[in-house]
Amino acid sequence: MLMSMQRVSKLYGEGESEIAALREIELQIDTGEFVALMGPSGSGKSTCLNILGCLDVPTRGEYLFQDVPTSRFDNDQRARLRRRFLGFVFQGFNLLPRTSAVENVELPLMYRGVHARVRRARAMEALAQVGLAGREHHSPAQLSGGQQQRVAIARALVTDPAVVLADEPTGNVDTARAREIMEVLTRLNQRGITIVMVTHEADMALYASRVVRFLDGGIVSDVRQTPLAIATAEGAAA
Amino acid sequence: MIVWNAIHETLRQLRRNPMRSMLTMLGILIGVAAVIAMIALGRGASARVGNDLSGLGQNLLFVVPGAPSSGGPPHRNDAPPFDERDARAIQREITGIAGVAPTVTRSGVAVYAGQSRRTTVNGSSAAYFTVMSWHLATGRLFNDAELRVGAPVCVLGQTVRNALFGITDPIGATIRIGNISLRVVGVLAPKGSSSFGQDQDDLIVVPLATHQRRISGTHDVEAIFVSARDEAESGRIRADIDALMRVRRHLHVGETPDFTVRDMKEIAAMVGSITGVLTSLLAAIAAISLLVGGIGIMNIMLVAVSERTREIGIRLAIGALGRDVLAQFLIESVVLSAIGGIAGITLGLTGSYAITRKLDIPLEIDPLLIVVPFAFSAAVGVLFGYFPARKAARLNPIDALRHE
Ligand SMILES: Nc1ncnc2c1ncn2[C@@H]1O[C@H](COP(=O)(O)OP(=O)(O)OP(=O)(O)O)[C@@H](O)[C@H]1O
Ligand SMILES: [Mg+2]
């Protein structure tokens, strides 16, 4: 099992004002899946994704990544795990401002000690994969919302991660741009990268092979489905 | 490589906030420049004092009335003055002496053809010129007859000569000081200004008898300058003068003397220790401004960390370890202070050059004076950057990402 949550709870606050963002969640995700996490606002989707991505730690329960329990990891060990296996795409395009697209994409490689020249080549290639060839030297302010989100995806995939975790990657873009983003994610998934994505939109969940629904910090349904077929790579980039 | 990237990042950050970066660096810049300038100045000044004193001759001693005080000038209170007989006694009784110059000093206004100048008027013996290392530029010194009878003749320092005569030849001219007339017989070669900024050439010398009779109006002698034939003997001569004067002034054994004998080595050591203390004091004050600069850096780095919290969250999420973030901010503050340091060194050196030029003191710069402030400013960057950087490195990625 790639990722496994065992009776994971996440509590915020203390005593009277205690809020359970997650209540004893059981969730297993296998290599190669494309999972959509859905549910109303405040139901715990982001919290779950952050724990899956080792950005956050459960209050109770155990989270295993590749069968290794992570509850005793320190900050550095979690950072190393993220560095080695994971790529992130956040809502609201977390790019570094005033930093060109290609430099943003190079950043994870820099922290992995990749040589500058190799870094540049791989970043260019990743940008080409998300259909941004020719925009490498634009800064985030010079890119549209959809383009920025694709830069963020390029940044997530440039390290060849085992898993890409995306929190509402289409949250801030219109439907047409959202489809382009979903097609990019689908192609990553077809290359064998596991995708876990939080979304509000049923349309976007159609691209996933599995839909997990949250309500009040618990999982209320977990359904496998045939993902929406996408057009060819040329079609997507157009 | 991480370091290189961090420096690259830093330069980008600095360009992003040019005004802020410059003001922050200014703190370090001023601190470093001040430290360099103060030390260079202090060293230059003590070198200058040393030169001047040794220019007077290591074999110079002087005797003045008044009990010796540690360090400072002698206490004068009501110690009986010396007179010419004391000087003659020294000349007669003590061996190894090259010259004895009993001296009186007054200030007076010299007038010639509508030009006037307030200056120092010294009365002394023929030995005065050799004892005080004066050389003649033109004319002659006093002859024996003039000295004996107290003839109305004088020798001018270069400054007085320029003030009164300009380019005309002063030899043979008659100047007035108060209501007496003096014929100029010679002009001294210039010595320049002393370490204390005082113009040594601003003087007129007259025979002692002339001075006593017509200017000071007493038989007293204010100081007796003595030069030893051999510098190595100045200690012995000093002791001999001390013993002689005790006898002449009827002091009991062990009684505190009412006069002071000093030699130049002592004076040099005294002045050296004073300028040393002064230099360290100035450097300490300058170092405080460097410290203040460091606090400025810390302040700006704290602002930078909270401004860029979200960025730190992103970096932590995409693969940075805590220590990468630590290194980034630490390097940023070191680069900031090092640039300030380099600018400060440049300013400090040009400043010291200009000031030493103006004050006519030697510019003493050794490599340490450049290396140490630079290392110090970098250290300030590390020291004051560490706390903000550690704060950044310890951020929880989720909290950082949520930060507005
Ligand atoms: N740092 C926190 N402190 C306190 N409560 C928190 C914190 N983070 C999340 N919560 C609470 O935990 C619950 C789950 O939050 P979470 O962000 O996982 O919801 P979500 O399903 O992602 O919602 P949305 O769709 O609006 O993003 C919410 O009630 C939220 O208020
Ligand atoms: Mg959310």
Can you give a write-up of this model?
The complex is a heterodimer of chains A (238) and B (404). Chain A is built from 8 helices and 10 strands. Chain A has 238 residues and is of the alpha/beta class. In chain A, helix 3 packs across helix 4 and helix 5 packs parallel to helix 6. The C terminus of chain A is likely disordered. By secondary structure, chain B is an alpha+beta fold. Chain B has a 6-stranded mixed beta barrel with strand order 3-4-9-6-8-7. In chain B, strands 2-10 form a two-stranded antiparallel sheet. Chain B is elongated. In chain B, 41% of the residues are buried. The mean pLDDT of chain B is 87. Chains A and B meet through helix 2 and helix 3 of A and helix 1, helix 10 and helix 13 of B. The complex binds adenosine-5'-triphosphate and magnesium ion (MG).
Describe the structure concisely for a colleague.
The complex is a heterodimer of chains A (238) and B (404). By secondary structure, chain A is of the alpha/beta class. Chain A has helices spanning 45-52, 75-85, 101-111, 116-129, 145-157, 175-190, 202-205, 233-237; strands at residues 3-12, 19-29, 34-38, 60-65, 68-69, 86-89, 163-167, 194-198, 210-215, 218-224.
Could you name the key traits of this structure?
heterodimer; A: about 240 residues; Rossmann fold; six-stranded mixed sheet; 10 strands; globular; disordered C terminus; B: about 400 residues; 2 domains; six-stranded mixed barrel; binds adenosine-5'-triphosphate; binds magnesium ion
Oligomer: heterodimer
State the CATH class of chain A: Alpha Beta
Coarse structural class of chain A: alpha/beta
Task: Round the mean pLDDT of chain A to the nearest integer and report it.
Answer: 91
Helicity level of chain A: 25-40%
Q: What helical percentage do the residues of chain B reach?
A: 55-70%
Question: What is the radius of gyration of chain A computed over CA atoms, rounded to a whole number of angstroms?
Answer: 18 Å
The mean pLDDT of chain B is: 87
Sheet with the most strands, sense and barrel status of chain A: 6 strands, mixed
Number of domain modules of chain B: 2
Trace the largest sheet of chain B across and list its strands: 3-4-9-6-8-7
Largest interface: A-B, 30 and 22 residues
Largest sheet of chain B: 6 strands, mixed, barrel
Shape of chain A: globular
Secondary-structure-based class of chain B equals alpha+beta
* CATH fold descriptor of chain A: Rossmann fold
C-alpha end-to-end distance of chain B: 31 Å
Number of helices of chain A: 8
Order of helices and strands of chain B: HHEEHEEHEHEHEEEHEEHEHHHHH
Proportion of β residues of chain A?
A: 25-35%
